[in-house]
Specification:
This protein is mainly β. The chain contains two helices and eleven strands, in the order βββββαββββββα. The strands form two sheets. Strands 6, 7, 8, 9, 10 and 11 form a six-stranded antiparallel beta sheet that branches. The radius of gyration is 20 Å and the shape is elongated.
Amino acid sequence: MNDKRKITASCLLKVNGNALRVQLSPAAIYGGQEGHYRVRVNRIWRNGHDGNPLFVDRAGLGALLADLMHSTPAQITERPNLPSDARVTVTIWQDDEPKHLSGWTYSTPIRADDGLWYVVVSAGGRRFFARCEDVRLLPPAAQPGGLRRRLCRS
């Protein structure tokens, strides 16, 4: 696969003792408008709230950099104890009501760009990333044999 990434400018911000590497790439090579940029922060492309690539003009870039410089660092939390292939209950929200689904984890937790921990789960007939705070590990008796033995030893 041909990598179309072309970084035309970058800067390093130091915020509260943490380094943030900001890189700009022309939006046109990603389907955006001329004169706009696609932004990467610490090697992660920024996306809009709709999940599509975020393209910013100069004013938007200034606002993004100002937000980055005034943001508070995410709380450092330990990786949640959610092993892969474990039986779990996942809370999702539908029509402002919580709904609890039974499912399985398909990964160990990962920390996303927003500083929160997520895990891939299979529940309700689909696989998706769920926030770890919305996932509850079922008791050892409900877990498959190998995992049950590991959980009982801990």
